[in-house]
Fold this sequence. Notes:
The complex is a heterohexamer, with 2 copies of chain A (130 residues), 2 copies of chain C (135 residues) and 2 copies of chain E (102 residues). Chain A is 38% helix and 20% strand. Chain A has 130 residues and is α/β, with parallel strands linked by helices. Chain C is of the alpha/beta class. Chain C has 4 helices and 7 strands; from the N terminus they run βαβαβαβββαβ. Chain C has a 5-stranded parallel sheet with strand order 6-3-2-1-7. Chain C has a two-stranded antiparallel ribbon with strand order 4-5. The B-D interface holds B 6, 40-41, 80-81, 111-113, 115-117, 119-120, 125, 127, 129 and D 1, 3, 5, 7, 19-20, 23, 26-27, 30-31, 33-34, 36, 131-134.
Amino acid sequence: MKFGIVVSEGPYTHQASDSAYNFVKAALAKGHEVARVFFYHDGVNVGTRLSVPPQDDRQIQEQWTALAKEHDLDLVICIAAAQRRGLLDQNEADRQGKDANNIAEGFRISGLGQLIEMGIQCDRTITFGD
Amino acid sequence: MKFGIVVSEGPYTHQASDSAYNFVKAALAKGHEVARVFFYHDGVNVGTRLSVPPQDDRQIQEQWTALAKEHDLDLVICIAAAQRRGLLDQNEADRQGKDANNIAEGFRISGLGQLIEMGIQCDRTITFGD
Amino acid sequence: MSEVKKFLYVNRKAPYGTIYAQESLEVVLIGAAFDQDVSMAFLDDGVFQLTKGQDTKEAGLKNFSPTFRALGDYEVTKLYVEQESLDERGLTLDDLQDIQYEDEDDDYAEKPSIIVVSRAGMADVMADQDVVLSF
Amino acid sequence: MSEVKKFLYVNRKAPYGTIYAQESLEVVLIGAAFDQDVSMAFLDDGVFQLTKGQDTKEAGLKNFSPTFRALGDYEVTKLYVEQESLDERGLTLDDLQDIQYEDEDDDYAEKPSIIVVSRAGMADVMADQDVVLSF
Amino acid sequence: MATLHTVNKSPFQNQTLLSCLQHTKSGDAVLLIEDGVYGATKGTALSDAVTGLSAGVKLYVLGSDLAARGIDVAKLGKDITSVDYAGFVDLVADHDRTQNWL
Amino acid sequence: MATLHTVNKSPFQNQTLLSCLQHTKSGDAVLLIEDGVYGATKGTALSDAVTGLSAGVKLYVLGSDLAARGIDVAKLGKDITSVDYAGFVDLVADHDRTQNWL
């Protein structure tokens, strides 16, 4: 079955991104397809490469990056939500005249249409948020 | 009277940073001193210079930077909370081996001790959060 | 598009204290381009989103409430509002914005977009969807 | 330090679903170095923070509950827990961790740090502070 | 030695206002801000509970947050006073401490 | 055409679980996750309300979130089933849609 996942809250502050990560791993282990993970609201903050969590804690961004690499996951950060919150890739930084970017490997920035498309194409859409 | 302010939630997602900003402006207008604004939890995200909010919306980071400049405010971002969430200055980026920083002008990163010290030295401590 | 799905956007939170109401609307506007069968649900504190007379100037916030009146232009015309949620909050339909759409199948007559339903009716609306997105 | 203020850290939220409980503890530990008169309040869902047997391995979270037992070493010895909050949640003192401190004024005897108070008693604790920080 | 309490959450969604009111002392003040202002209106499923728990306590509401949400001051419960941010600052200064119920 | 509902908030703090249960249809399932698992225990001020609103609905709770919070399965209300993430995935697949109550 084809799943689409929405993550609506930022890492560490809420458990939402942890729950989504555990769910995606379990779905893949059962042979389901995870067509896309869409990061919205504060969820966009999961995709920053500048975080330095305590070493004895889980490394949320690195977990997602590794999972995406292993399973060729499509991790999409909403551009409108990301602009409000200061999450940029190089292309966006150039376009907005910003002198730095902070997106992590394995994530890409795209529009809200990707969320709707995910809902249309997936058999199930599940949101983890607050 | 000497006020200390805590901001515990990120910009746009919660109204907390707006309420804190309005309160600080009103306190200053009444002749009170605002000794420090301490950004904790997701509040650290107020201090990113990489955000690009819609042009017809308020520019939360720029509001704080301008207010700090005008009134010589001490805007302190908690280092432990900032590390988890990917908010860095150049010094922290160098120390952590990160290739970029994203702190905005007018903010500085320091330890939780600054929160306790603020509580000790101020006549009133007010928290805006969730 | 060959496949048309029923999308429901569920709004249960008050506006302004948090951003969910506003960013929900942004999804709805973008989603309108996809020609799906779209409905919005307003229950619990979500009914507060629709009140008229919102004036955010002194609070320094962006007033997004006029956008609800533009939904008809995007062919988003089914705004289900729960009666019990209104009652509990001391609200009546008169406290809400008058949100209308032009019915192109009826000589562009202006018709109300807000459909007041009971709690049981809201449960029926929810159970009749393909995709439910919550804010 | 000449001035000693009464600091109260108010904990009203459950652990793990959100980070407030954990980051509250980080403030308390840092604050202990400042030699103030420190108390912690646990009420409403905050009482869930103190339950024993927390095992976060399968959930993939960091278990910070052992830190509560270290508070005594930081001379944080007054953990006020509200009886009514426990009752409403079906909890008794037996469900909570046994948190102790060594009383240096009493030959380092081990004494309980948890002080169960009524709701009215909690209101008295709150009204007796100089600085109240909420999480 | 009175306290100013602030509450910023809707009481229809969240228990915080009721918990706050159960922990106030006579002479305290409670200021409703942000989504907390929904607790200030009369004729709701909660207005009796709010009134009942507020004996001896002065209730205030932040006017700019009321206006943002389209609530007319005529809808406020009686004995609830609307203040602006300057009034908020005065309330903080006039009470011995502030407890923010988050 | 049954729905899987998820609830992730403590019912002692937030009205979401009660609202969810009031919008379920017979044959639906409700899965409690994250802080929502506190709604699964018996002997609380809310357990009767949860039971009363759950007629015709199957209640599940995520075991790893129970364990994280130190809740023994012996404390679960009767007819509440603990599942792991694989069981969560099965519940999503076995119902026609998922509605996440946030």
